[in-house]
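User: What would this chain look like folded?
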Amino acid sequence: MDSRGGFWQTGGTVAGPRAFVFRNRRWLIAAVFVIGFGVYSLDRTSVAAALAAVLSSHAGGNWHFWMHALVGLAAALVAVGSFWRTWGSAYLGADVVFDRQLHAERLLADGPYRFTRNPLYFGNLLFTMGLGFVVSPVGWPVLVIGMWVLVKLLIRDEEAGLVAAQGDSYRAYLAAVPRLFPSFRPLVPPAGARPRWLQGICGEAMIWAVACVTVGFAITLNPAWYQQRMLWAVAIALPPVVWARRRRSGTAAPAAASPTAPPASGH
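Assistant: Here's the prediction, encoded as structure tokens.
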């Protein structure tokens, strides 16, 4: 990385047996959501409804008050998680985010990558914790704990590939920036890369659709409305996601001026 905290260039991708989880992450993440929401048929009481019943009995207030508050919290977590994923995707580009290969031709030190090494996975966790309020207690461990385990495996595979490709330069980045939970201030100087917000927003259109519907559910508390609107929202969001995945930017990332490691200050 250059003295500005910019990009490393290797001109290739990293792949291998350890990258299996990364290459198949879309299917694995989909399985977590399908199973987590699917077991709702076994228990149609949501986590939010169960918690609202407990809180109304022990902390005062009626059930509807607590349901609005809890589902509102769920919507906020989903929205914040969506923002982190969009912010990270805007700097990586949809072609990298959705590619089956583990890209190591550039390591970013702009945008959210100055605060956390894995803003996309941090967003995944917030997003999933929010949706954990609207699944059943049986589905909660499948969804939330399942996503946590999957994120840990993804980070393991991705960072192993990046260490193998970048060596000491990436190890310095590991020492400077936290793995998952972001710092309160940037820890690496900016490189000057410009975000591709259109690709970022379109690439994450589906999770924003889920966020909007969850906000509506916090207002209406109508499960039937939530399920119907969720299907429509996902269907509407699918075309921009497909567009973002197929689009390839013709602008190459700027090359690093020198291969020096980023400063490890403030960690």
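Residues 1-14, 94-102, 248-267 have pLDDT under 50 and may be disordered. If you want, I can go into more detail on any region.
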